[in-house]
Amino acid sequence: MAHFLVTGGCGFIGSHLADRLIGDGHRVTILDDMSTGRLENKPLPARLVVGDVADPDAVRQAMQGVDGVFHLAAVASVQRSRELWAETHRTNLSGTVTVFEAARSARNGGPVPVVYASSAAVYGDNPATPLREDAATRPLSAYGVDKLGCELHADVAWAIHGVPTTGFRFFNVYGPRQDPASPYSGVISIFARRVAQGEDVTIFGDGQQVRDFVFVGDVVRFLVKAMERRPQGAEVFNLCTGRPTSLLMLLEVLEELCASRVRRLHQPARAGDIRVSIGDPARLRATFGEACRFGLLQGLSATLTGE
Length: 307
Ligand code: NAD
Ligand code: UD1
Description:
By secondary structure, the protein is α/β, with parallel strands linked by helices. It has helices at about 10-25, 55-65, 80-85, 85-105, 140-160, 185-195, 215-230, 245-260, 280-290, 295-305, and strands at about 5, 25-30, 45-50, 70, 115-120, 165-170, 170-175, 200-205, 210, 215, 235-240, 245, 265. Helix 1 (about 10-25) links the parallel strand 1 and strand 2.
């Protein structure tokens, strides 16, 4: 049995991870400021420290004596990073540096490994799809710039401070517990709820934008595998399926599953929105010996039933 800190553990992805770790018999401490996280997401046995991931005292306290850290706390909405630039920067970049710094001396004065969430947003509109990890990074949003900054600081964490890390460039993650009520939430959670209830959907742009949608169960599996593999250095992997889905295709599949038809209301594309985002999972597969298991139909059905 090990003891892990999960930052952002009351959020969408973090709470699924915390469930899995507890199920595997580990101890879990969660650090979350509850800005988008929810108390009902917290697994009962997990210890919750309510605090800010950019506050060094709170992070040091939550990290004391753990065997490893999963760092997921962030403002996950690209749109939010446009509206609250400096505030999201503080959480998304300073928060990560604060976590890496505390990890230098978290257990018996020595370093502990950190597995953290980067994002496909680091690639921006690079047209070389499917994107390999060595493709050029040219983020379009403050969110993407900060995630790239996290990866650069991970290099420093290892080279200067001996903190080993594994970063995952999550593509578009979806599944149960992603908040359908927030306009800042992922598009699948918003569309799934609206189609199920027969309500109009808003499409920013023409709906031909393409994403690589990854089910949360697959994400959790790779996060755990990365920690089990014991991070060395500062590696970064795509976490993706390699399969493209446009928003219009997504809507058609949801309509089929819900036996419902909804109106599409178009609004101008959001500034800094990526047109095509598809990852190449070859390196993920080669390193971890497996690929994502959930297809879109299976993942969407699980999302609609909340299981
Ligand atoms: P989420 O909003 O559900 O979870 C983020 C959690 O972090 C929430 O519980 C929130 O309360 C907490 N948090 C936010 N600011 C904090 C702060 N200052 N201090 C402490 N806690 C704070 O989002 P999610 O989709 O679960 O995202 C988890 C991670 O994955 C984030 O780092 C996000 O950037 C990254 N990511 C998500 C996706 C996706 O498609 N959902 C894709 C790429 C990367
Ligand atoms: C998402 C994640 C981000 C992650 C990135 C990686 C969320 C909230 N954002 O950003 O954390 O780093 O993937 O690829 O999980 N759209 C509509 N109508 C809506 C909502 C969205 O048309 O009601 C469009 C958006 O303009 C965009 C697409 O759907 O073109 C996807 O949007 P969104 O789910 O917010 O994700 P990303 O911006 O790709």
